[in-house]
Amino acid sequence: MKKIIIEWLHYDREGQTCCRCSDSSESIKSVIEKIKPLLKTKNIELELKETILGEKNIDLSNTVRINGKDIMNLLNEKYGTMTECPSCTELIGKATSCKTFVYSGDIHDTLPEKMLLDAILKEASLLQ
User: Fold this and answer.
1) Helix, strand or coil for residue 78?
2) What is the pTM (predicted TM-score) of this model?
């Protein structure tokens, strides 16, 4: 059976993460639930790997990789920018910026479900 691994890197402090990462987590879980049955018919297993980051790696927080490829590269999108994240700022105690996603020309603070679906389907087609 072929495998697609979704790796989600996110900041965590004592079991808490920022609003952006929390919303991205919900998007990831929703997409996995929706797409798993389709992938099973194609003999592809889907796995989620969470990588918890500390404060020193906050610049990688809210990164999504599909089989080791950054989702932005996989979809041929521009890299997002770092924008101020009030939620991380509150968790860390100092001004903090986090990654954004660029999808179809729009900047998103959290991972759009359609973006992840497109990336998984693209990777699945490469495995065929």
Assistant:
1) coil
2) 0.93
Instruction: Please report, for the domain that includes residue 28, its CATH number.
Output: 3.40.30
Share of the chain above pLDDT 70, in %: 100
Euclidean distance between CA atoms 4 and 37, whole angstroms: 13
To 5 degrees, how large is the angle CA 98–CA 100–CA 104?
Answer: 175
pLDDT in tens, 97-119: 888 999 998 999 999 999 999 99
E-strand spans in the chain?
Answer: 2-11, 44-53, 63-66, 69-70, 82-84, 97-99, 101-103, 106-108
For 103, the domain range is: 2-127
Q: What are phi and psi of 60, to 5 degrees?
A: -95, -5
